[in-house]
Amino acid sequence: MMNFQQLLQARRSVNQFDSNATISRDDLESMIESATLAPSSYNLQHWRFLVVDDKEQKLKLKKAAYHQQKVEDASAAIVILGNLQAHKDAERIADDLTEKGYLPAQYKENVINQIEGLYSNESMQRDEAIRGSSLAAMALMLAAKEKGYGSCPMIGFDPQLVRQEFNIPEHLIPVMMITIGTDLDPEMPRKIRFAVEEVTTYNGF
Ligand SMILES: Cc1cc2nc3c(=O)[nH]c(=O)nc-3n(C[C@H](O)[C@H](O)[C@H](O)COP(=O)(O)O)c2cc1C
Questions:
Q1: Is 168's C-beta closer than 6 angstroms to any atom of ligand 1?
Q2: Regarding the domain delimited by 4-37+45-85+126-199, which CATH topology (the fold level of the hierarchy) does it fall under?
Q3: DSSP for 28-63?
Q4: Which of 12, 73, 52 is nearest to 162 (CA)?
Q5: What is the reported pLDDT for 101?
Q6: Which of 11, 13, 79 to mutate for ligand 1's pocket (most ligand atoms within 8 Å of CB)?
Q7: DSSP classification of residue 83
Q8: How confident is the model at residue 172 (pLDDT cuts 50, 70, 90)?
Q9: Ranges of each domain in the chain
Q10: Average pLDDT of the chain to the nearest whole number
């Protein structure tokens, strides 16, 4: 089993999946369970997962993804959806915080009001849905790698068409899609990364 550094080093955005390979729902659900361990603002867990593992459905998704072949060849594609109405779970989350000793009972209402206040702003709802779901997406890709699967994050799709084809409710926005399957070429060279000093400043610009 690879350690964390090895997983990070080994992960690639897969170029070509083995179209004959399959993936079990147990494996998919185990990866999704790992993804749900990601952090999120107020623990609101904005992520939702639309799993597409049926051949016909994958073809529909491929069409919406501008015919990218990987969508068909991957064993499954997971559309990560961000919940614009995550604040509606505020009470459940606050109850858990109180029960576990994070939040004294007398402050519970304050926290719920704070969450509802923050999320009355539509751009905040959208930003948070994307932020939270993106963290889950990364965790999902690493969990896939740990199980021996390759993955590719994808934004090359028409979100309106995906919404329409898969009856996605209005309060969920497609954030990205992750295709998962058997990587036919896991030894592809790592693409350029900017050096730490190019991307880092300390204590301001
Ligand atoms: C948000 C996002 C969207 C992407 N969309 C696509 C896509 O539509 N199709 C594709 O082939 N690769 C897509 N990629 C993969 C990137 O091209 C890839 O991550 C990048 O070139 C770095 O390669 P690496 O992941 O192997 O290190 C996407 C990556 C991200 C993070």
A1: no
A2: NADH Oxidase (3.40.109)
A3: HHHHHHHHTTS--GGG---EEEEEE-SHHHHHHHHH
A4: 52
A5: 97
A6: 13
A7: E
A8: very high
A9: 4-37+45-85+126-199
A10: 97
